[in-house]
Amino acid sequence: MKRWQMIKLGLILAVYTIVGCVGLAFVYNSTSKTIAQRQEADLQAGLHEVFPTATGFTPTDKVKSPNSTIVFDAAYTADGPSGSLGIAVKAHGPSYGGPTTLIVGVSTDGTITGVKVLENKDTPGLGANAANPKYYVDKATKTTFPGQFAGKKVSDAFIVKQDVTAITSATITSRSITNLVQAVAKAASDALGTAGSAPVPSSPSSSAVLPSADTVRPSSRAATSSVPGVSILETLVGTKAGTIVGASGKATAKSYDGDVTVLVGVSTDGTITGVQILECTDSLGSPILAPEFAQQFVGKKAGTPLEIGTNIDAVSGATLSSRGATALVKATADALVTALAGGGL
Amino acid sequence: MKRLFGVFVNGLIIENPLFIIMIGLCSSMAVTTTVANGIGMGVALTFVLVMSELIISLFRNLIPESIRMPIFLIVIAAFTTIMDLEMQAYFPVLSKSMGVFIPLVVVNCIVMGRVEAFSSKQPVADSVVDGLGMGIGYTWVLIALAVVRELLGNGTLLGFQIMPASFSPMIFFILPPGGFLVFSLWMAASNNLRRKLLAGKKPEPTQDSCCTLPENGSAEKA
């Protein structure tokens, strides 16, 4: 008897579900066309905003996203009256309050033609000003935050508060959009074949972590770390007037739920001369890319313990990523000191 | 008629879902950074609440006791999805700015709470009126919160600049701590009004005892 009761209840539930589904199907049918039209109109308006003179847009699959946190939704070549004008990419990447979706246009000479924010879920009044057409980072010229990217070269530095003006009180939003624009610009210019405009990635930053060196060259012997899980990708030696003054290493290791990559410079006396957190793919780890975090390591001795909470402050909200990065910086610094002491670099 | 009016007024202050029953608070804190979002969320929830209460009250004798929760959820989820699709089609700006909070109406405790406590036991007319009352009770609180937060935190109301240019927006009010502060001040004001309304009146036995505060709770201690 109990079994019949169960089947009966199941059937009743099924009837309710079916009625609900049929109702939804009708509503979906009546609205899906309008929704698709609106999204298409938004997209076309955005594409025309970044390439005002284009006569049409052809989908392309040549542009590839450089990493998994930034997703390229669609890419188009902008067709002008006389051949291709460039590439427009619709892409989204993580920001403070959820993903931000942008359209970025890159012309054939590697210049950004325009950036339009399609969707941004950051704090209204702060980060959301990225999409506010009346929020000016430069009131004199009425330049909006995304507007300032127009005319930038792909080879520019794209560092917030240096060559990019931040939105007031929304540094994380500013930084994530800047990174997104740069990633798209690089990928698009690679696809366009304007290679060579992008600088060799390692050399400028390597000299930044070895400020006392006047030349930086690849090491003749790679540093290796004894810490399990740490792999040193690249070892460089900094020299001044021919004498070795320090070494730098680029290393990567597992962090909270992704990977973290750092660049560490160590002088011959074992002092950390500079640290850059190059990449962090942890789900909430992007705040540790802030230069303020990496700056804390400068001047510390490689042999001493580096610990979150004692002599290194974690970035709030990203304690586990901070800890992962700190352990990696220490392992890399120790490996470099050993390599420097071993000589023959 | 008088009875229906009593049910309607009940949700505004005396049993306000946010200030007295204290359910559905997370969305109220999250969307009230601008007045437009507050109105949109309030209207959206009112729609889902009225429709769900109507349908469940209509079918209340055909819903077996032991599987009532999944059936309530199916009804609520269906109406939420309908509203989400309609908003995406006809109010895309509002739909974008409220993001995930529209789909989350499904699990908004106010809807589940009212359906379970009220409309699964009450006639259709009462249920619809209860949904309207609770929905408007929710909406006015959202608007009240959003007016203060948007005005002080951004200097605007419904997107129009209200404060003089020399006013520097107090970002604190846009952020969650400011939201809690504004919420508590409004709650104090509303509950003070509630006490005056109830003073001298014997508390009427309400139909849903589950959600009513015992009278000696909030009123006497103050």
UniProtKB/TrEMBL annotation, chain A:
Residues 195-213 have a biased composition (Low complexity). It is an enzyme of class 7 (translocase). It is a single-pass membrane protein. PROSITE patterns: PROKAR_LIPOPROTEIN. Its EC number is 7.-.-.-. The modification FMN phosphoryl threonine is found at residue 171. Pfam families: FMN_bind. It is found in: Cell membrane. One of its GO terms (cellular component) is plasma membrane. Residues 95-188, 255-336 form the FMN-binding domain. Residues 194-224 are annotated as: Disordered. Part of a membrane-bound complex that couples electron transfer with translocation of ions across the membrane. Belongs to the RnfG family. This is Ion-translocating oxidoreductase complex subunit G.
From TrEMBL, chain B:
Keywords: Cell membrane, Electron transport, Membrane, Translocase, Transmembrane, Transmembrane helix, Transport. It comes from the Bacteria. The chain crosses the membrane at residues 12-32, 38-59, 71-91, 97-115, 127-147, 167-188. Its EC number is 7.-.-.-. InterPro entries: NqrDE/RnfAE, RnfE. It is a multi-pass membrane protein. Residues 202-222 are annotated as: Disordered. It is an enzyme of class 7 (translocase). GO terms for cellular component: endomembrane system; plasma membrane. Its main location: membrane. It is found in: Cell membrane; Endomembrane system. One of its GO terms (biological process) is electron transport chain. NCBIfam families: PRK12405.1, rnfE. Part of a membrane-bound complex that couples electron transfer with translocation of ions across the membrane. The complex is composed of six subunits: RnfA, RnfB, RnfC, RnfD, RnfE and RnfG. Belongs to the NqrDE/RnfAE family. This is Ion-translocating oxidoreductase complex subunit E. It comes from Candidatus Cryosericum hinesii.
